[in-house]
Amino acid sequence: MNGREKISFLDRRRWQTIGRRLRHSTAIGLLALGGVGLRADPAGTQKEFLAGNYPFVISEATLGLRDSPGVTEWTILLIQALLAVGRNAEADAAMTETLTRDNQSLKLRWLARDVAYANGRPEEAKQRLGEIRMFVNMRRWGYRSPAEMVIFGRTALLLGADPKDVLEQLYGAAQKMDPKSRDVYLARGDLALEKHDFPLAAKVFEEGLKQLPDDPDLHHGRALAYANGDREQAQTSLNAALKINPRHVPTLLQFVNHHIDGENYIAADKLLDEIIAIHPTQPDAWALRAVLAHLRKDAEGEAAARATALSSWANNPRVDFLIGQKLSAKYRFAEGAAAQRRARDFDPEYLPASAQLANDLLRLGEDEEGWSLVKAVHERDEYDVEIFNLVTLHDTMGKYVALKSDDFVVRMASSEVTVYGPQVLALLRRAKKHLTEKYGVELAKPTYIEIFADPKDFAVRTFGLPDVAGFLGVCFGRVVTANSPASSESPTNWESVLWHEFCHVVTLQMTKNKMPRWLSEGISVYEEWQANPSWGMRLDPKYREMMMGDDLVPVGKLSAAFLSPKTSRHLQFAYLESAYLVQFIIERYGLDKIRGILRDLRDGGEINTVLAKHTAPLATLEEDFATFARAKAAELAPKLDWTKPEPELLQPNAKEALAAWEKDHPDNYWLLKLHAQRFADQKEWPEARRVLERLIELYPGQKGADTPYRPLVAALAALGDTAAETEVLRRWVELDDEAPDAYARLMELAAAEKDWATVATNAKKYLAVNPLVAPPYRYQAQAAGETGDVATAVVAWKTLLQLDVPDPAEAHFQLARLLQQRGEDREGKRHVLLALEEAPRYREALRLLVDFNRAARDVPPPAAPAQPAIPIPVPGPPVESLSLPPVQP
Q1: What is the CATH classification number for the domain harbouring 653?
Q2: Average pLDDT score, the chain
């Protein structure tokens, strides 16, 4: 362009900006400069709509329709903007007038559906779908634009079309025709979100953002796709949406949800005020305001908010669906289920309410109705990923075995239940007796415990999706789900996990699920510590650094620390900090205060108010607890120097500088670790031993992956100092509940010394980590046999047979001998015959068979022999690190 044209262009841009500012305040739609009109076109006004300039869009579209009454795009913009600010009656009038001029437009008919819903006429909205279908059937060739294909696709889905056909034949074709069509990306992404296919949704919205990076709806969709997985990505997308459109109501509602999850109700209220200022009767906003009122036990406020949410459409099922969904997210499953039933009363065909109700019922232990609803939803929507996963899980759980008592129903895979199911029941009985007496609560019966052999099944049962990692167990109040110890990638003490989760059963039922997450988790971790000194997480060097630094979260914000942690380490730190806070309250104010806090929460008290009532004002409590927590951190190995050396000192060419620094920092934790690692790597075992023994002397309580006990045991084994190795192992196993390699080695050494008590103790410790491998049962059977504990030995040998041991003949023979000692000749003879079936020339078994036959001639068989249990063989993973001595018959 030439210079004059360039100046003219800049002038037009400058005057357009001035004109927009004037139109915002005066609604004047036309400025002239030299006789040139400056009105924006519908495409430019659409950008203003996406930016949230709704009053401007209404003004511009109104004037556009005055000048060009036949331009449908102006009508669509006007009606969309009117709906965005809650002027539903005006949108209705505009739609009625426009349909008299253009009754063939699919865009208008689809938008007319939204207008009908906004004005409380759902039957009319459904009729609009039929009209769209009729128009397309009559003039299929006439509706071939990408936008029209998308509308027909959305309509077809609502009328029951196959989603795959819509994706391929309509959405796919539309995207090929116009790769920049936002309608296509929104339709595809919305469909994936509706079917809970979040990976696909993320992919679709990201494809759209490559083409349309400034679209707030696409950013919002991407945030929803990542909401249940990568929270950081979700937050980034929400921030991007608001940067483009600060008045984007769907995004603002997501932030309200986050604030409610984090118990920041004041911030949630402020955001709701902003949304209501944009759209005074926005149904979702008023539904969430009803949730806040419910959580505050404000029945009148709740009823008023719900009534406002339903003011435009009296039977809108989404209102109660959202209320119930949010209450269920707060673990108020009974209240959530009641809300879903109200939604279903409004519209029995509203599937989201049925699906959520099914999940609520399953979490309440009402399995029969819950699974029936899952099946019913799946029959109507076989593409919903979450429901499909549940249907598949139901088939899997149909093969599970249930152990039942008056207090518990424990469901486990048939391959595991006979191995350690009785131990699970025994642990739960101990936990129930201790914790219910301690907290003074009577539980609903029974408690349901479901232990899943496949972590994907656990994730589906717990979260609806198979790819949620990082959880060992979850409690919903009366239902506990847990991963089998066989599925854990790292050693995990299943006894500690179940004790922790059952403590949730106690506190959640005591408060009717009305407690903040930090208090629930804090009590459970604290009770692990009380039950067994080696259980539960402990302060370690990394947590010490966090507690001494800026990562200690104020008490009033502690629940939010579970919602959006910076890292997985920060999430674990939230558990630890919560436990220390519970310990602080008990030590400073007494256990009765904790019980009082729980009772007041049950009665509807707000946590900070309740804390102040039973302890101190929040500001004082936060200050006192911070002092307590940092004192605990300072008590960790106080004789160690915790100063971290600068990274450059650890470089290979900085040996002299490091040596000089070390002189000023004797007994530095990080350098002791570094030296120990280097000596071990170079197999300089005496030097490694010296450094590691010094580290343990200064920090004797370190457990977990970084414990110095493990490398010290390796060094002592390499040096051949068995006595010292045994002593170190004894100290290690006393403080670490998840060290199966230590238990195995100590059993091996103790068996060689015939120290059967140590063998038996460490066999139990090992089985608390992994009860599905053979070696600890073999040691247990050997120790019990040597000490005359026939009952324990019998159970151990029977369990070994279920684990498909390499030498079943020996196991059957040993079991037969023990049964003979108990006078159970009939059962003993069966096992000796099974031994001979495996090894026909097994001489000792043959001699034992002769003994049984001789005894049988003298003693008649019992009149009604008990039927023996049929063992279920289970393949157990090998423990390669163990060197097991043979058990002598």
Answers
A1: 1.25.40
A2: 89
